[in-house]
Write a structure and sequence with these properties.
Helices cover 71% and strands 0% of the residues. The protein is mainly alpha-helical and 106 residues long. The two termini are 29 Å apart.
Length: 106
């Protein structure tokens, strides 16, 4: 079975534009903003561990990238956030309210 890249993009867009994945991506963006604000605007006597929250909020996928070199290290949270949002989109579509009314009518 072959699927066109256009249908994969359309499916990913449909899954990512549901409320639950959008809320998750907003939460990840808020964590990144908090970490950046902590890094640039807060004086610390010692190193801050705030940066680990980016990886915690996008785990488990982002933790697989933790052993890579520094340039690839930061791809982990981006990939982790997208994969987790897609999974949430699939779950929201599968167990969401939209499909239930159609299945009961049949």
């Amino acid at each position: 079975m072959t699927t066109s890249p256009r249908s994969l993009v359309a499916t990913a867009r449909r899954l990512l534009l549901r409320p639950l994945p959008l809320a998750y991506l907003a939460l990840v963006a808020a964590v990144v903003c908090w970490v950046l604000a902590d890094h640039y605007f807060v004086a610390h006597a010692d190193a801050s561990m705030a940066g680990v929250w980016i990886f915690f909020s996008t785990a488990p996928v982002s933790l697989a990238f933790a052993a890579l070199p520094t340039a690839l290290f930061w791809i982990g949270p981006v990939v982790g956030a997208l994969v987790n949002a897609l999974v949430l989109g699939v779950l929201a579509e599968r167990f969401g309210g939209r499909g239930r009314s159609q299945s009961r009518a049949a």
